[in-house]
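Quick start: what a row looks like.
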Amino acid sequence: APVVTEAPVVTETPAPTQTPVQTETPSEMTHNFTTDKKVSEDFTITGNLSTSKGTVSYDGLSLTTSLKMESATAISFTAKEDCKLTLVFNSNCNKYIVIDGEEYKVNNGILEVPLTKGSHVIKKQDSNVNLYYIKVTY
């Protein structure tokens, strides 16, 4: 009797669906002056630190070290894409700082500014402004 061989049944395997990377928590860069002082891979920080300007609570953190926003103070960084910059100051701060040459008013210790991809510089405008924390959210 002849041997009948059946052609193997080929089933196409669907390509695995791409899982989006971290949809719940967007990627971010942060700098905590209390723990990191002025050492950072993401931010270039020039200026003086102080531990006598009070304690600020933010995002579950107790922040005790600030960067004093003085005329020589500068923080520069490069955003890899459009982002939101959040700066945390003393909670009673409603003064101005300068980002990329434009003045921005701090609102009760928090400043949130949308920024575009590229290089950015944060500088002093008003006196007695102390920066405790930086967060860039993509």
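That is the whole record. The first helix runs from residue 33 to 36. The radius of gyration is 24 Å.
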